[in-house]
DNA sequence: AGCGGTGCG
DNA sequence: GTCGCGCACCGCT
């Protein structure tokens, strides 16, 4: 009989039923609410579709259970070993040194509306429309009214519900206000939406310790008298009067209402409370916050004492594990309805279950998934705030009443394209992929995409593609018409502006590895670090700049010596890589990258034109009819390529050497230089006359848009010669067909600039500057020539070089930083992940985590740093 | 590349 | 009567 409520629940679609895992939903009549939801939904097309999708998920689960049934004891045991290895590696990377805060405004849109319209204060209300609600106030939540619920159902749950339509401009204005406050605590805070952000309080707290009381004192807002009066009259617009946390309660004790103020302490809690206080004083809205050693936990914590509260999870492993113990998996960011249901099917509902079942999970889920599960079960998460990534797509879509006439569909499609083109123009984007999205009246969604060899930006260009896609769909369905309820157009695969195309980015990166790296790759690196932190997915790492000492001493590829003088000192790669600190350095320090970023962003239009041309010239290059009739050292006029960029100055006598034609270009302006390279790339006759049969390996690979591909080819040869390493790492990692490619890419990008000076063929060319007789390779780390053509040998050298660099870097940290023993840094997650990445690029075809520590750290660090022997020994 | 699906706010 | 929009990412093919 205990099962009766359970059975009742199962009669409800899990997709449809009330989601009560969020705040404000405790102690309400679930069953009654679900009944109403079901009754208002049943029979609708939407419901039918949800039913279908639910069944799909059920089939997925059945399949999974079938798979589970076939797992043998032995397989499970083996998996267990693997899982434990991964767990100890992850454990090693645990970093409890950061203080991450997640701030979330309480019922944001609803709160803003209530603030501006006090009559709403005591009523259940929601923001949105009859067809969809954005959020509801806490009063309405008692009835089961929630965000993402259609208004008409909400009305059935709560007939008195007031629905206010959205005023985004207002929310944005408020958002700006709170972000100003955020910036005081972490100038690099990461907004997740208008009302939510992650902050890294670590540095603020450090400074705060020495702040005088006056800096920690904050006044009640000037209107506090008015507030007091309101409060006395019970008219206060404050959202949650009964909340014991309401800072207005303190007003009384302060006495004089006119100039009331409050002093905050130096602890984390006090700092966060202060921030929330300031938000409330400034906006008359309340916020909740979570304090934890990483983002994943902070997010969960911010929910814990909502509304208008905060929760701190102490930075100890014990506290974290206790916290995780009974945490429902659904609370974790990234685990949604479907994942929850799948996990539930395996009797996993809390994070501790997750940990107990890891072996099983590793056999049933993809590597990315189970790695994520494992991180969750260990209470791990990002310990730094990810930088905002560049956008990857842009779209617009619209829902409407049934639309069946082809004519109307086409004109709607055009409208969407117009909107989209307008949005693209604002960000100066050009995209190569256009995707059409259709949803029919049965809620079935279809997407159709086409990738062009060139980029589009105008209405007509986009519409030309979208129209074709639409036409095909209409024809496929004919003679029946498409009965649509939604249409959308999306563009992606941008080839724009600050990103430009990888081709150009790489070239700039190669030219000035230390500085220009930030125009793209520094950002990328943060992203990659974050990605790896989050999903453990191997991701490509861009070419790292060389170490400072080498950069000063040695020539940078393709850059002539005379142009090296008088440049500001460069940060080391390791400093840059260290997530948060790096960000701060970039902002407070000499900002070597900013000027360049501006420079390069001007290229766009020329760049895009060039890209088309590169494509079309591919064949010509393949034919190798590239005999150049120009003498090798001829000076080329920079304006030859694109005169339009001439506004960018460049009067110095410095020169750069073009990697395509190997002639010097009399400019330091990268725009101009880039244009020259574009021009060269477009002109097959520009290829240097010393081209040899090995061109296909050493020259820019024009068939591929990505500059990396050149190096990929080169590396591929190396990999095959690298049997020893690959074999070892394969033993440690799970078989994964994609892994190899991924790692290959990593390695290739990392080892980008093997070419030095005028030498262009890495494997056989002998640089003019070098007197040696045999073939020579140039180490990208130490920049010294290696007299060998054996790539395995060369690779070994590079690995050694790199390891030394790591050790050197660790040593440097000890002497100058407040963290005492250098090697302890390995335990700091940011650093640790970084090393993993670094090493993984040299271990092909492997799980990055395992291979890095097992292969590289063991060889590199174990012998040199006793501290780590103990930690690493499990992998022997 | 293209597509469907999951998840988030 | 009425169940959204914009974005990122994943896995499969």
UniProtKB/TrEMBL annotation:
It catalyses: DNA(n) + a 2'-deoxyribonucleoside 5'-triphosphate = DNA(n+1) + diphosphate. One of its GO terms (molecular function) is damaged DNA binding. SMART domains: ZnF_Rad18. It is found in: Nucleus. InterPro entries: DNA/RNA_pol_sf, DNA_pol_Y-fam_lit_finger_sf, DNA_pol_Y-fam_little_finger, DNA_polymerase-Y, DNApol_IV, PolY_HhH_motif, Rad18_UBZ4, Rev_trsase/Diguanyl_cyclase. Residues 655-685 form the UBZ4-type domain. Its cofactor is Mg(2+). The keyword Ribonucleoprotein does not apply. Residues 677-686, 703-712, 724-738 have a biased composition (Basic and acidic residues). Residues 44-74 form a coiled coil. It is an enzyme of class 2 (transferase). Keywords: Coiled coil, DNA damage, DNA repair, DNA replication, DNA synthesis, DNA-binding, DNA-directed DNA polymerase, Magnesium, Metal-binding, Mutator protein, Nucleotidyltransferase, Nucleus, Transferase, Zinc, Zinc-finger. Its EC number is 2.7.7.7. Residues 560-572, 615-630, 739-750, 762-771 have a biased composition (Polar residues). The keyword Glycoprotein does not apply. GO terms for biological process: DNA repair; DNA replication; error-prone translesion synthesis. GO terms for cellular component: nucleus. Residues 552-572, 615-637, 677-771 are annotated as: Disordered. Its main location: nucleus. Residues 100-336 form the UmuC domain. Belongs to the DNA polymerase type-Y family. This is DNA polymerase kappa. It comes from Amphiprion ocellaris (Clown anemonefish). The gene is POLK.
């Amino acid at each position: 009989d205990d099962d009766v409520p359970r059975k009742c629940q199962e009669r409800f679609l899990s997709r449809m039923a009330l989601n009560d895992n969020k705040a404000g939903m405790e102690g309400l009549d679930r069953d009654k609410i679900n009944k109403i939801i079901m009754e208002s939904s049943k029979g609708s097309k939407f419901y039918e579709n949800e039913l279908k999708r639910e069944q799909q998920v059920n089939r997925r689960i059945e399949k999974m259970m079938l798979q589970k049934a076939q797992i043998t004891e032995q397989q499970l045991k083996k998996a267990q070993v693997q899982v434990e290895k991964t767990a100890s590696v992850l454990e090693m990377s645990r970093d409890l040194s950061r203080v991450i805060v997640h701030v979330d405004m309480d019922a944001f849109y609803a709160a803003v509306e209530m603030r501006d319209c006090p009559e709403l204060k005591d009523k259940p209300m929601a923001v949105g429309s009859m067809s969809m609600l954005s959020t509801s106030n806490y009063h309405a939540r008692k009835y089961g009214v929630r965000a993402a619920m259609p208004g008409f159902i909400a009305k059935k749950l709560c007939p008195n519900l007031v629905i206010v339509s959205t005023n985004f401009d207002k929310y944005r204005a408020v958002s700006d206000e709170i972000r100003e406050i955020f910036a005081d605590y972490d100038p690099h805070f990461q907004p997740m939406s208008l009302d939510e952000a992650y902050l890294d309080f670590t540095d603020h707290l450090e400074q705060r310790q020495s702040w005088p009381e006056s800096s920690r004192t904050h006044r009640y807002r000037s209107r506090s008298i008015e507030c007091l009066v309101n409060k006395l009259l019970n008219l206060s617009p404050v959202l949650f009067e009964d909340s014991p946390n309401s800072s207005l309660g303190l007003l009384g004790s302060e006495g004089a209402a006119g100039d009331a103020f409050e002093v905050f302490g130096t602890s984390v809690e006090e700092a966060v409370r202060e921030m929330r206080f300031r938000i409330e004083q400034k906006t008359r809205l309340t916020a909740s916050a979570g304090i934890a050693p990483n983002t994943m936990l902070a997010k969960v914590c911010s929910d814990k004492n909502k509304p208008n509260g905060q929760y701190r999870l102490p930075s100890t492993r014990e506290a974290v594990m206790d916290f995780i113990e009974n945490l429902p998996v659904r609370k974790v960011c990234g685990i949604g309805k479907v994942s929850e249901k799948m996990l539930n099917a395996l009797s996993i509902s809390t994070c501790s279950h997750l940990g107990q079942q890891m072996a099983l999970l590793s056999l049933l889920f993809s590597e990315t998934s189970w790695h994520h599960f494992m991180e969750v079960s260990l209470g791990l998460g990002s310990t730094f705030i990810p930088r905002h990534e560049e956008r990857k797509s842009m779209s617009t879509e619209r829902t409407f009443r049934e639309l069946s006439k082809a004519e109307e569909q086409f004109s709607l499609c055009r409208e969407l394209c117009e909107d989209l083109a307008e949005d693209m123009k604002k960000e100066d984007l050009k995209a190569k992929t256009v995707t059409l999205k259709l949803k029919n009246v049965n809620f079935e969604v279809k997407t159709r995409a086409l990738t062009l060899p060139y980029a589009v930006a105008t209405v007509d260009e986009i519409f030309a593609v979208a129209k074709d896609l639409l036409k095909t769909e209409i024809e496929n369905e004919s003679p029946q018409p498409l009965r649509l309820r939604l249409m959308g157009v999306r563009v992606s695969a941008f080839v724009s502006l600050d990103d430009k195309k990888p081709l150009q980015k790489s070239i700039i990166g190669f030219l000035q590895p230390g500085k220009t790296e930030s125009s793209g790759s520094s950002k990328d690196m943060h992203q990659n670090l974050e990605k790896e932190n989050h999903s453990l997915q191997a991701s490509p790492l861009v070419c790292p700049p060389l170490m400072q000492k080498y950069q000063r001493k040695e020539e940078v590829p393709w850059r002539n010596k005379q142009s090296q003088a008088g440049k500001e000192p460069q940060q080391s790669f390791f400093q840059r890589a260290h997530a948060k600190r790096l960000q701060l350095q970039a902002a407070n320090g000499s900002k070597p990258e900013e000027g360049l970023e501006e420079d390069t962003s001007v290229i766009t239009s020329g760049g895009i034109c060039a890209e088309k041309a590169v494509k079309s010239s591919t064949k010509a290059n393949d034919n190798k009819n590239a005999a150049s009739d120009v003498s090798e050292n001829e000076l080329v006029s920079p304006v030859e390529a694109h005169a339009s960029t001439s506004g960018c100055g460049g009067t110095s006598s410095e020169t750069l050497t073009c990697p395509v034609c190997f002639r010097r270009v009399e400019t330091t302006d990268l725009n101009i230089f880039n244009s020259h390279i574009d021009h060269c790339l477009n002109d097959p006759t520009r290829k240097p006359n010393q081209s040899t049969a090995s061109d296909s390996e050493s020259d820019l690979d024009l068939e591929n848009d990505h500059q990396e591909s050149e190096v990929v080819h080169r590396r591929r040869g190396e990999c095959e010669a690298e049997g020893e390493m690959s074999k070892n790492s394969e033993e440690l990692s799970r078989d994964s067909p994609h892994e190899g490619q991924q790692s290959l890419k990593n390695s290739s990008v990392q080892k980008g600039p093997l070419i030095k000076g005028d030498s262009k063929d890495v494997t056989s060319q002998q640089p003019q500057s070098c007197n040696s007789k045999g073939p020579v390779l140039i180490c990208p780390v130490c920049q010294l020539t290696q007299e060998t053509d054996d790539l395995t040998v060369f690779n070994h050298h590079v690995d050694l070089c790199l390891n030394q660099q790591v050790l050197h870097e660790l040593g440097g940290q000890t002497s100058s930083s407040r963290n005492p023993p250098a090697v302890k840094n390995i335990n700091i997650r940011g650093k640790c992940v970084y090393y993993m990445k670094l090493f993984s690029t040299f271990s092909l075809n492997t799980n990055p985590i395992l291979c890095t520590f097992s292969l590289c750290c063991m060889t590199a660090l174990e012998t040199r740093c006793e501290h780590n022997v103990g930690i690493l020994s499990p992998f022997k």
